[in-house]
Every structure is written in structure tokens, then in C-alpha cells.
Design brief:
It is a multi-pass membrane protein. The protein is α/β, with parallel strands linked by helices and 1002 residues long. 55% of the residues lie in helices and 11% in strands. Among the domains are: 212 residues, Multidrug efflux transporter AcrB transmembrane domain (Multidrug efflux transporter AcrB transmembrane fold, Up-down Bundle), CATH 1.20.1640.10; 101 residues, ACT-like. Chain A, domain 2 (Alpha-Beta Plaits), CATH 3.30.70.1150; 217 residues, Up-down Bundle (Multidrug efflux transporter AcrB transmembrane fold), CATH 1.20.1640; 85 residues, Alpha-Beta Plaits (2-Layer Sandwich), CATH 3.30.70. It is elongated, with a radius of gyration of 37 Å.
């Protein structure tokens, strides 16, 4: 991964204009399409497979009069008058006639109709006109809304007040206010302090703005094919901007370190993208995974919210990895402060003085630090016990809007329950007296405590479905309304038996209650999944038991503290006025699950960047105390800047954000602050200091079975170092250092060291079953080493395993790449040629060339070994192309495998046990053939082979004809553990895990 990022960073740096033009073009095209065909957001919350949703879907076909979207006009008489005054009544009834002629209007209820109950307030000061439309929200045009608003304005005269509101006015296009701009200004100030260069300050903001712009345009374009709540784009914008700036900052900070060390700008950009970019990619993956995980709850609106935010994070990652290197190219060395540009190159310092003071303070008495800070966070989370959750209604919209005015006036004059009617739907197809049945159901519903009145109880025109519309005494978000819905559903079981019908409780209020309860049930499982994922990821990354435990417990403390802060504001009223919280009470019901998902990813960011530096220092010097201090000091500046930016952006959405986004932004701002500055920069370092070496302990068997992940780009740095070494030693083909392979029960072999130059031969000696084949496959890149370093022709394992597998060619190994016994020599050659050339066939001249090489090698081997030459199948050639492989003599078959390995002229050929040949002359012939290959080479070539008995160098020199200096022998008995040798089969080779291992991780 880091190698690909290295290439990407260099390419983007070299093609900056193409990169920036592509992003600008994408933004322009997507935004244009969004404006042209996007339909806008809508507050629609569906609950698949719930009683309320199934009933709503049912009445769409059976009761179209009440299934469409709706609107209301509330009319209030002036002081000293009643709503029944003749003049006011005449105006209202004339307005109703005009409204009935508006397109898409299905039914308009006359509040003065004797059959309509509850549309006139008890004090006769207000009347409620209910308008039902034929279609859903999306079928209502702006013209219809404007016409209805004008009708309300017509009724507003001579002291009479009228306001139009309802569901059709809930279409809210999120807008940016000046407070969000403050978030960007704060980010710019932090970046300016960090970089001390104006141009460098602009780079992360430009990258984040481009990424966020594309994300926002893409989401509004998506409204043409799916429903998005207004929370979705705002949440995506908030998260996308925050992580976009942070991710770009991480890359630029590493780029600055490289420049200060005197590295060329293009190389520096490539390295920064490979190293910091690897961490950014991993961090982005964790955030995306957590957000996409919201889809498991099974709520469509939450799925789109999670996927939308995940897309924003993915685009932010892409922007950071492409736009940032392009901006590095534009900035050149101007990313550095003037003093830094003029001073000579230097290596990175040990971190700022304040970071050392901070870490020494919090780790001086680590146990005391942990106890005090943990207790404080637990205390701060106490208000979370009073956190109330509900879905938004018109009462949470911005004050002054039509929807909010109508909601407030309706609650004032008709009671809070008038804003959340409950629908009891009855299947009355079996009834012979549908009207009487509906009257009975009306009485049953009206008798329930908590029902203010029943406004309507009627069958439909086909008399197969009936609806009872009940008005509660409490508001839709009131817990008492939830209890009322459950009470109606409990009693409905008795009514169904009594009246031989099927009943369902539905309506917007019942649906919101079902959603909130579903979210409540999903919260604990989701929390367990998130914390489990946290444990697993950090266990793999840091290969430690304590690090993931402290990270997970710290994440839990951060989440609970964030919940406590939200509850303190919304339930207890603390700082409600300064934060512009217009209504206390329940917060959006999906706030906890959204906050947990987002905060999880961000917490992993800070854990990664701080603890990885500590882990790096510990791996180098083995001193846990200095690792904590120096690692923290190295990471603290960039993490501090990133956290301040993140907190600032989230906090900027609080004062004037929508009612749905405000509590989420507040929770994220508090959560990030606590997680970054208290948990990651105090509690976690104190815990690591307290446990010393034990903080980095991992059981041996677990270490063996865990894959290793390179999230700091150490692989590409090893590749760069290997390439430099290769340039200094162009004759070197293989260099293995402390190569180790572990099996399920322990170490197979360890500390295998080997250096092979062009023209040299290495011999692995060991008895049968001693691990020779395992070592060969490891050196050939087919088995991933558990520890140590392997470089083949300048390419390192495991980052370039595919390239090494191409460079290191295997002769025939039983169970790995056996020759096809039932095919001829020619067919085996053709198959190998087509595999190498990726062509479906092999040319005759290529086959002939391989046959010539094979016969030349066999002839030389037989002559040297003084073996008789016996024509095959009566032909004059030693091996005929049509001879089946199964019919070849043992030596000829081995040499065929070796010749096939030379196809494509690889620089490294590996041959299995020579001593499988039964006779001494055959073995002598094989050794001679190997020596001939090296002597006649016209391209760089090194060969590694194996034998069972250790041989002295003089004997090998005699057998191969090679000089003593070109032969190396390794006795596997010195490094081999026979009890743990894996069974070497084709399956064990092809199914090796594609993980990234490094010496530091093992």
C-alpha cells in the first residue's frame, strides 16, 4: 500500500495542474447536475417492517384521502373577537373554496363543519384548516406552496393572523451561516501558528473545501434518486471538512519534516504521501467503516446518513492524498517559514519544550493521573442519565419559519398533542355495519387516558378500511405520548377479538416512536461492535494487549462525557441560551449512534498518530519511559493542531446549526476535545508509563497468528533504503537479514542471513524434512516472513512480494509447482511460456529455443557425470519434444524444471533438494548443470539450491566449476525447529495472508 501511495504522491506532485483541474472540473459538473435534477432534502423517516410503516403503506391504497402529504393553516382571531365571528368565518370559508381549486389538493377540512371535531380551539380564538394532498412531498411544487402561503397572507388582515405550515414546508436546504465561517477562520489561525507560513496555511483548507464541495454536490445530486434528510448533507459537510483539514495537515506536517531534513521537494512529497498517507488511509478506513456500519440498524434514513458521511470521508481522504501533493508542488519550499527556508537542513528535533513539560507532568505520578482524570470524566458523564431522545418534528425547526410558527401556534391554541395526531387503522372488510363499528372504536380510543379527543372516525368509500384520528394530550416527543401509543397497541389486542378486526397504530408520531425505539435497541449492539473493532484494529496495529484496552476504555469515556455534555445542555438547560438552544427536551434519537460512529474513527486517528510514535521509539531503543516521552513530544504538535481544528469546526455548527445537527455537533466538539487532550494526551501515556515494558507485551502465539499492518509507511522507507543499497551494490541480487518464519506452534527457522551477488550460488544443507523447502519458498517471496528483512534485486518483502515472486523463479517443487506428468515436454514448455508472456499461445521458435537450452544442459550434465546418452523413443535427440514428462529420467526431469525456471531470464532461480536424485552420478550432473547456467549467463543471475548432506566448499567448487568465493553454504540445522515446520503444499503457498509485516512489528 505504501509503495502505491509513494507513486501516487510523486505523480500528483509532478502533474499538479492535471490534479487540480480534475477536481475543479468534477466539482463543476456534479454541482451543475445537482442544481439541474436534485430535488432537495426532506424530513422523511421510514421504519421498514414496523407496525406504523406497514399501516401507512396500507392506507395509501385503501384510504388515499389521508395518505398523501399535508399542510395546515392556523387562523387566530384578533383580541376581543372569536373565530366564529361572521366576517372571519366568511373569509375562512371563501379561502377554503379557493384552496380546493389548487393543484394536487385532495381534501380541505372546514373547521366549522359539524362532522369535524377539534378544529376550533376551546376558547374560540383559533381555527385549524387541514389540507390533504393527492401525492407525496416530492409531488408538491413551489408554486403550490407559494399559493397556499398567499392564502394565509390573504386571511391576515384587521388583526386576524394566519400562518401556513405543515409537512409540505419541511423541505429545508441546509445553508451555511457566519458561525461556520468562524470555524474556518479558527482553522486558519491554528494552521498559521503551526506552519508559520501563510501559503502553507491555505493548503489544508483548499484541499478540504474542494473535497467537501464535491461531497455536498454529490449528495444533493443523489436526492434525485433517493430521499435524504436535511441532516445528511450537513453532517457530511461537518465531518468532511473536519477530517479533510486534519488529513491534509498530517501530510503537510510530514512533508515539512522531510524538507527540513534536506530532502528534495518531489521526493519529500512522495515520502509524505507514503508514510503519513498510509496512516491517513487507515484512519479514513476506520471512520468509513464505523459510518457505513450505521446501515446494520436497518433504517433507510440512517443508512443514507451513514453512507453519505462515509462518502464525504472517502472523498476527503482522496483529496488529501491527491490535492495536497499537488499543492506541495505549487508551494515548493514556501511551505516553510522564512527562517526555516534560509537555515541549513537539519533533522527533526525531539519535539517542542511544552510537549516535554506536559508529558512529564502527566506521567510523573501515572496512577494518580489515571484516577483523577478518569473520575472527572465519569463525573462529567452523569447528566447522560437524563438524556432524552426523539425524532425531530416541526417544533425543532428554526424559529420564524412557517413550519415552526404553525407548530407553536397550534400547540398554544389546540394543545401540544394537536401537532402529533395518532391514526388507528382498522381492517373492517368483514363488518356488516362499518359505521357502527367505527363509532365503537371511536369510543374505545377516546376512553384511554391521555387522549384529548378523537377528531375523526370513519370508514373509507369501499367500507373495507376505517381510520380513527386521535389527538393526544401531550406533545409528539413527550415520553407520555410513547406510553400512550403502547397502551393503544396493548388494548388493540382485546379490540381485535371483540370486533373481529385487525388494528394498527400509525401516523407520523407513532412512526417516530418506532424509530426511536429501534435506535435504542440497536445502540448497545452497535457500541459493542465499535468497541470490538477498536480492540481488534489496535491489537493488530500495535501488537500489544494494553494499548487496545486503554484505547477502547478511553473511547468509552469520551463518548459518555459527550453524552453528558449534550444532556447537560438539552435536559438541564446549562448554557442553553449562549448556545442558541431554542427548545429544551429530547435530542435527535440517532445522535448517540452517529456520535459513537464518528468519534470512534476520530479517536483512532489520535491514538494512531501518538502511540505509533511511542511504539517506534520503543522498537528502536527498548526503553518504555523514553518511548512515551519522546514519542509523545514528536506527535503532540500536529495532533494538538488537528484536534483544535476539529473541535473548532464542530463547535462552529452549534450556535446556528439546525435542531438536528446542533446536538450532534456539540457532542462531537466535546467528545473530540476530551478524547484528544484528556484521553490520548494524558490517560493513555500515563497508563503506558505505569505498565512499562508490559504495555508492549503480546503473547507469542497471538503474535504469530496476527497479521501485521504497516500504517506508518515504514515499508516504503525500507524500500527506499533498499534501493539506495542496491544502487551502491549493483551486483547484489539477494540480501536476507535475520529472516524468520514462525508456525502455529512456534518458530520454524530464525535468523537466516544470506547475501547473493551476480554469478553466485547458495546451498541450503539439511536432512529431509528440515525446512529447506520452507526456506526456499520464503526467499522466493511465496511465504511471508514473520520477521527479518528480505531484498531481492532492490525490492523488499512483503511490500513488493508480487515483484519478488516474478524475479525469483522456482524450479519444480513437489506439491507447489509440479510439472504436468500427462503433458509432453513441448506442452509443459508452451504452458510456461504463455504464463510468462500472458499470451494464449507460445511461438514455435520460442519452444525450439527452450528445447535447445534443455538438450544443451542435459548433454553437459550427462557428459560431466559420465552417464550414458540413451536416445528417447528412437530419436537422435536426447529429449524429444513429444515425450511425456512422466517418461523422463529423473535427472532430465529436474533439468527440465530448471530450464523452465530460466524462461524470462529472472535474476534469481531457486532449486529444491538435489539429493532427491538417487545416484551419485545424477547428482554430479545436476551440480554441473547449475554451474554451467551461472558460467554461461548473459544477464545477472544467482541460484539457490538445497541438498541433504552438508558439503565442503572444495567439493562444491569441483562439482560446479565455480570459484570458491562464489559459493555460500548455510546449514539449516543451526536455525531449524523441526517440530514446527509447516507442511509445504501448493495450498500453503497460494493462501499466504496478504499482510504487511515489518521487523518493528514483530
Amino acid at each position: 500500500m505504501s509503495s502505491a501511495l509513494y507513486t501516487l504522491g510523486r505523480w500528483c506532485h509532478q502533474h499538479r495542474r492535471h490534479v487540480l483541474a480534475t477536481w475543479l472540473l468534477a466539482l463543476t459538473l456534479i454541482a451543475s447536475l445537482a442544481v439541474a435534477i436534485g430535488t432537495g432534502t426532506k424530513e422523511e423517516y421510514r421504519v421498514p417492517n414496523s407496525e406504523s410503516q406497514e399501516a401507512l403503506d396500507y392506507i395509501k391504497g385503501t384510504f388515499p384521502e389521508i395518505s398523501g402529504t399535508s399542510a395546515q393553516i392556523i387562523v387566530i382571531a384578533p383580541n376581543g373577537h372569536t373565530i366564529t365571528d361572521r366576517a372571519i368565518r366568511t373569509d375562512i370559508e371563501n379561502s377554503i373554496k379557493r384552496i380546493e381549486n389548487i393543484d394536487s389538493v385532495k381534501v380541505v377540512t372546514n373547521p366549522y363543519d359539524k362532522n369535524v371535531s377539534g378544529s376550533l380551539s376551546a376558547d374560540n380564538r383559533a381555527a385549524l384548516i387541514n389540507i390533504q394532498f393527492t401525492g407525496d412531498f416530492f409531488s408538491i411544487t413551489d408554486t403550490t406552496r407559494d399559493t397556499l402561503t398567499n392564502e394565509a397572507n390573504t386571511l391576515t388582515h384587521n388583526g386576524t393572523r394566519a400562518v401556513a405550515g405543515g409537512a409540505i414546508y419541511n423541505n429545508a436546504v441546509p445553508t451555511m451561516s457566519w458561525t461556520e465561517g468562524i470555524g474556518l477562520i479558527l482553522s486558519a489561525l491554528v494552521l498559521l501558528i503551526f506552519f508559520r507560513a501563510v501559503r502553507a496555511t491555505a493548503a489544508p483548507i483548499v484541499s478540504a473545501l474542494l473535497g467537501a464541495g464535491v461531497s455536498l454536490a454529490l449528495l444533493f445530486l443523489a436526492t434525485s434518486i433517493t430521499v435524504l434528510t436535511d441532516t445528511t448533507p450537513m453532517l457530511a459537510l461537518m465531518i468532511g471538512m473536519a477530517v479533510g483539514i486534519d488529513y491534509s495537515l498530517f501530510l503537510l506536517a510530514r512533508h515539512r519534516e522531510n524538507l527540513l531534513a534536506g530532502i528534495d521537494p518531489a521526493e519529500s512529497a512522495a515520502r509524505a504521501t507514503a508514510t503519513a498517507g498510509s496512516a491517513v488511509l487507515f484512519a479514513g478506513f476506520t471512520v468509513i467503516t464505523a459510518l457505513a456500519g450505521l446501515s446494520v440498524v436497518g433504517l433507510p434514513f440512517l443508512t443514507t446518513m451513514g453512507i453519505g458521511s462515509a462518502i464525504a470521508v472517502a472523498i476527503a481522504v482522496a483529496a488529501a492524498l491527491t490535492i495536497t501533493p499537488a499543492l506541495m508542488s505549487l508551494l515548493g519550499r514556501n511551505i516553510l517559514a522564512h527562517r526555516q527556508r534560509t537555515n541549513p537542513p537539519r533533522h527533526a528535533t525531539a519535539g517542542p519544550r511544552w510537549a516535554h513539560i506536559w508529558i512529564r507532568t502527566v506521567t510523573r505520578f501515572p496512577l494518580l493521573t489515571i484516577i483523577i482524570l478518569t473520575s472527572a470524566l465519569i463525573f462529567a458523564s452523569i447528566p447522560a442519565r437524563n438524556l432524552e431522545l426523539a425524532l425531530p418534528d416541526a417544533g425543532t425547526t428554526n424559529p420564524g419559519t412557517n413550519a415552526r410558527l404553525t407548530y407553536d401556534l397550534t400547540a398554544e391554541h389546540f394543545g401540544p398533542g394537536a401537532n402529533g395526531p395518532l391514526l388507528v387503522v382498522a381492517d373492517i372488510v368483514k363488518s356488516e355495519r362499518p359505521r357502527e363499528l367505527m363509532d365503537d372504536l371511536k369510543k374505545e380510543v377516546a376512553s384511554i387516558p391521555g387522549i384529548h379527543h378523537v377528531s375523526l372516525a370513519t370508514p373509507n368509500r369501499n367500507a373495507d378500511t376505517g381510520v380513527v384520528i386521535a389527538i393526544p394530550t401531550t406533545a409528539p416527543s413527550d415520553p407520555a405520548t410513547t406510553q400512550l401509543v403502547h397502551e393503544i397497541r396493548n388494548r388493540a389486542t382485546t379490540w381485535e377479538k371483540r370486533y373481529d378486526t385487525t388494528l394498527s397504530v400509525t401516523g407520523a408520531t407513532a412512526a417516530q416512536i418506532d424509530i426511536s425505539e429501534m435506535l435504542g435497541k440497536a445502540l448497545i449492539p452497535f457500541a459493542l461492535v465499535v468497541m470490538g473493532l477498536c480492540l481488534l484494529l489496535l491489537l493488530i496495529v500495535f501488537r500489544s494487549i494494553l494499548v487496545p484496552l486503554t484505547a477502547t476504555l478511553g473511547f468509552l469515556l469520551s463518548v459518555l462525557t459527550a453524552f453528558g455534555a449534550v444532556a447537560a445542555v438539552y435536559s438541564w438547560g446549562w448554557f442553553a441560551e449562549p448556545l442558541s438552544v431554542s427548545r429544551l427536551g429530547p435530542v435527535i434519537s440517532f445522535m448517540p449512534i452517529i456520535l459513537m460512529g464518528v468519534l470512534f474513527g476520530l479517536a483512532m486517528d489520535y491514538q494512531m498518530f501518538i502511540v505509533s510514535r511511542m511504539h517506534e521509539h520503543y522498537s528502536h531503543n527498548g526503553d518504555p519511559d523514553s518511548a512515551v516521552e519522546n514519542g509523545f513530544a514528536a506527535a503532540a504538535p500536529v495532533v494538538t493542531a488537528a484536534a483544535v481544528i476539529m473541535v473548532g469546526i464542530f463547535a462552529a455548527f452549534v450556535p446556528h446549526g439546525s435542531a438536528t445537527i446542533k446536538p450532534i455537533a456539540l457532542g462531537l466538539a466535546v467528545g473530540v476535545f476530551v478524547d484528544a487532550f484528556i484521553v490520548r494526551m494524558a490517560i493513555v501515556p500515563a497508563a503506558l508509563k505505569l505498565f512499562g515494558h508490559g504495555a508492549w507485551w503480546l503473547p507469542g502465539k497471538l503474535a504469530t497468528n496476527l497479521p501485521a499492518i504497516d500504517v506508518e509507511g515504514s515499508g516504503v522507507m525500507r524500500q527506499i533504503a533498499a534501493q539506495k543499497t542496491s544502487n551502491r551494490h549493483p551486483q547484489r541480487i539477494v540480501h536476507a537479514t535475520n529472516l524468520t518464519v514462525r508456525g502455529g506452534r512456534g518458530t520454524v527457522f530464525s535468523d537466516l542471513n544470506l547475501t547473493l551477488n551476480d554469478g553466485q550460488l547458495a546451498v541450503l544443507a539439511g536432512p529431509e524434512g528440515s525446512g529447506k523447502t520452507t526456506a526456499i519458498l520464503t526467499l522466493a517471496g511465496r511465504i511471508y516472513p514473520s520477521a527479518g528483512d528480505l531484498v531481492v534485486n532492490g525490492h523488499v518483502m512483503p511490500e513488493h512480494s508480487g515483484t519478488i515472486q516474478h524475479l525469483a523463479s522456482l524450479a519444480e517443487i513437489h506439491g507447489v509447482n509440479p510439472l504436468e506428468n500427462d503433458l509432453s515436454v513441448k506442452q509443459n514448455i508452451a504452458e510456461t511460456l504463455s504464463t510468462r508472456t500472458l499470451m494464449p499461445w507460445a511461438r514455435r521458435r520460442d519452444i525450439d529455443a527452450v528445447m535447445t537450452s534443455l538438450n544443451h544442459l542435459i548433454t553437459y550434465a550427462l557428459d560431466t557425470a559420465e552417464l550414458p546418452i540413451e536416445p528417447t523413443a528412437g530419436n537422435s535427440r536426447l529429449v524429444h519434444r513429444d515425450t511425456l514428462v512422466r517418461d523422463l529420467p529423473r535427472l532430465s526431469r529436474m533439468l527440465l524444471g530448471i530450464v523452465l525456471a530460466t524462461i524470462g531470464r529472472p535474476p534469481f532461480i531457486l532449486i529444491d533438494d538435489i539429493d532427491t536424485l538417487r545416484t551419485i552420478p545424477e547428482r554430479r550432473g545436476a551440480w554441473a548443470a547449475i554451474g554451467l547456467l551461472l558460467s554461461e549467463r548473459d544477464t545477472p543471475l544467482a541460484i539457490l539450491t538445497a541438498c541433504q548432506d552438508s558439503m565442503n566448499i572444495d567439493e562444491l567448487t569441483t562439482l560446479t566449476g565455480l570459484p570458491e568465493t562464489d559459493i555460500t553454504q548455510i546449514n539449516l540445522a543451526d536455525i531449524y525447529n523441526p517440530a514446527d515446520a509447516p507442511q509445504t503444499t501448493e495450498e500453503t503457498v497460494t493462501q499466504q495472508p496478504a499482510t504487511t509485516a515489518s521487523k518493528a512489528h514483530n
